[in-house]
Design a protein that fits this description.
The protein is an alpha/beta fold. It is built from 8 helices and 21 strands.
Length: 355
């Protein structure tokens, strides 16, 4: 009997982790990614001077045990987020930012050495023998007797089983299904919040950590905006320096240059003119990224319908599994959820004992 063909849709953390777990199985694995790069919503920009700035997810915590174990297995070191010293908070536009001392007993968070893309690079290097297709958006899934025809912008493939790791909202809006998926599933998917879809992240690299020299943590918080949160983003070796954070989603319709101007004005208000002496400014507006947020996808409450029981069913006569961090029963919408969901699908496939 020939080996079963599995096609994984999406080369983000969940998709690549699943391929990694299946690498020694009897399945023939193909990963299809719409973007021209790996990582999905993991995006680390190495600025001039090679300062890594995470424009997607950046942090993990002690309770993220599955992700931490995977990082240990892949030999990727982590470092604790710097949060020592004073921080600024602005409650309203009529008042200047107020200085306060960060609590010393707060739960620590961590970042990956080299940026979050380190785990994507490591996984892809191990998966060098896997058939990986980039820049191929999937257009149609059609049931064909015992197989599924997967039509992309470039070609048509056949699979015994398809595992989707793309956001459910994108899955049901960007891909045509023949026959149609159940209306109940489509409705749930359209009302499932997509991780990062509302986020605008930015970062600035510097030749020195001027905020630390002033006894500042680099942390800034604002109810006013345009940025709402800002943190120290110094690298693992503590020889590359940056600040990075989030902007309020309401300014996603502005141009990048407009947002940058607003950010620089706010940074000067918070940290002084030294904040304007930066090497590089980077940003990522995920709401404008077509492979993250469906164009007709309404803004939803954070984590809405994440981990819904509908995602634990198989579709297309048991030939389609819906995966990805939004479908995880725990830590949905985080890197931990992406890893756990990949492990869940792997265990399910392993229990099938089919070759």
């Amino acid at each position: 009997m020939k080996n079963k063909n599995i096609i994984i849709l999406g080369a983000g953390l969940c998709g690549l982790t699943l391929a990694y777990l299946l690498r020694n199985s009897n399945y023939q694995i193909t990963v299809i990614e719409a973007r021209n790069r790996l990582g999905g919503r993991i995006l680390t920009k190495n600025t001039s001077g090679e300062t890594p700035i995470d424009l997607g997810p950046a942090w993990l915590w002690n309770q993220n045990t599955n992700l931490l174990n995977l990082l240990k297995e892949l030999e990727i070191p982590i470092h604790q987020q710097f949060a020592t010293g004073n921080a600024y908070y602005q409650s309203m536009a009529s008042q200047p930012p107020q200085l306060f001392q960060l609590p010393e007993n707060q739960e620590p968070s961590y970042r990956m050495a080299g940026g979050t893309n380190s785990i994507i690079k490591k996984l892809s290097s191990i998966l060098s023998s896997i058939d990986l297709k980039l820049n191929e958006p999937v257009l149609n899934l059609e049931e064909n007797v015992h197989l599924i025809d997967v039509k992309t912008s470039q070609s048509t493939y056949q699979a015994d089983l398809v595992v989707s790791t793309i956001p459910p909202g994108l899955l049901v809006n960007n891909i045509e299904f023949t026959p149609n998926l159940p209306d109940s599933l489509v409705n749930i998917a359209n009302n499932t919040h997509t991780w990062m879809a509302d986020s605008i992240k930015f970062g600035l690299s510097y030749d020195k950590p001027f905020w630390k020299e002033k006894g500042l943590s680099g942390s800034c918080f604002s109810n006013v905006g345009p940025f709402t949160e800002l943190y120290d983003h110094t690298n693992y070796n503590e020889n590359r320096f940056a600040l990075a954070g989030f902007m309020k989603p309401a300014i996603s319709d502005l141009s990048s240059s407009q947002r940058k101007k607003m950010i620089l004005n706010q940074l000067e208000d918070f940290l002084g003119k030294e904040a304007l002496d930066f090497i590089s400014y980077e940003e990522q507006c995920w709401a404008q990224e077509k492979f993250t947020r469906a164009q007709n996808h309404d803004l939803l409450s954070p984590h809405q319908n994440n981990g819904h029981s509908a995602y634990n069913h198989l579709y297309f006569n048991n030939k389609l599994i819906i995966s990805g961090t939004e479908t995880a029963s725990q830590y949905a919408g985080y890197m931990e959820g992406a890893v756990r969901r990949a492990q869940f699908v792997f265990e399910f496939l392993d229990n099938l004992k089919v070759s």
